[in-house]
Amino acid sequence: MTRPLKLTIAGLLAGLLPFVVFVGTTYQQTVNGVLVVDDEQNFAGYAGGVLALVLAWIIVVRPERPADREPRWRAAGAAVAAVGVVQLVYSAGLFG
Description:
Elements: H1 3-16, E1 24-31, E2 34-42, H2 43-61, H3 71-91
Antiparallel strand pairs: 1-2
């Protein structure tokens, strides 16, 4: 297995795993039986998103061999970065 492939798999796992695994806090407040506040902070999501972005940067900017400079690895790095950004936005509660 080549280094960019390992980094791509690790980045995708880091970015996608927090959608399934929740490590964080939840807070709910009800007033007169009505839910008025519902807040979740998934710390695994923040860490996974940042890790995915770091691994994407390594894939694209720090190739070890000339074969690692192929366009397919840049596309893989872009995909990992996109997953990391989506994870960060989702964990911050900006959508979803």
